[in-house]
Every structure is written in C-alpha cells, then in structure tokens.
Amino acid sequence: MALHFELVTPERLVRSENVHMVVVPGMEGDFGVLEGHSPMMSTIRSDATVEIYASASAAPEKITITGGFAEVNDKGLTILAESAA
C-alpha cells in the first residue's frame, strides 16, 4: 500500500501522488509520515525542505517550501505551503 500525498500552494497543486514516505519539516522537528500514520496537524518551518520517498529504497526527492501546515488523516498527507520551489 502507499501514502497519498498532496502538496498545495495558493497558486497551484504542486504534487498529488502515492508515495512510500514523506519527511515533513515541522516546527517542533522533522517527522516521517507513512501510510497508516495517526491523524495530526503541524505547522511547518519557513524555508524548509520536504523529502519525498517514492519507494522504501529510493533516494528522496527534495522540495523547498515556505511555511504552512501539514495535515495527516485517513486519506493521507496534505501540505498547504505558502510557496514551493
């Protein structure tokens, strides 16, 4: 199974895909999200990097984001960022 991940900015939907894991740069530290993660919300550090792992053995794809929120629920992980590069 896979984790459904979406990265959204005010301008556009940056990513919407199934992945193995995402490492989120939370305000109180980085945390990894896999399928089945407990529901939670977190604010995101400014000028931080999200690491997206397509599979368990894959190297991470890194996307720099600015601020925002992350929400984990039964549908997956959604990051609402101020900007993404």
What does this protein look like?
The N and C termini lie far apart (28 Å). It contains no helices and eight strands. With 85 residues, the chain is mainly β. It has a single domain (3-84), classed as ATP Synthase, domain 1. The radius of gyration is 11 Å and the shape is globular. Helices cover 0% and strands 67% of the residues.
State the main characteristics:
85 residues, mainly beta, ATP Synthase, domain 1, eight-stranded mixed β-sheet, globular
Our estimate of the beta-strand percent is over 45%
CATH homolog superfamily:
F0F1 ATP synthase delta/epsilon subunit, N-terminal
Percent range of helical residues: under 10%
Which outline best applies? globular
Rg calc: 11 Å
**Mean pLDDT value:** 95
The CATH architecture assignment turns out to be Sandwich
In N-to-C order, the SSE pattern is EEEEEEEE
Distance between the termini: 28 Å
Q: Low-confidence spans: pLDDT under 50, at least 5 residues?
A: none
Number of strands: 8
- What do we call the CATH topology? ATP Synthase, domain 1
CATH class: Mainly Beta
Question: How many structural domains?
Answer: 1
Structural class, please?
mainly beta
Largest sheet: 8 strands, mixed
Query: How many DSSP H or I helices?
Result: 0
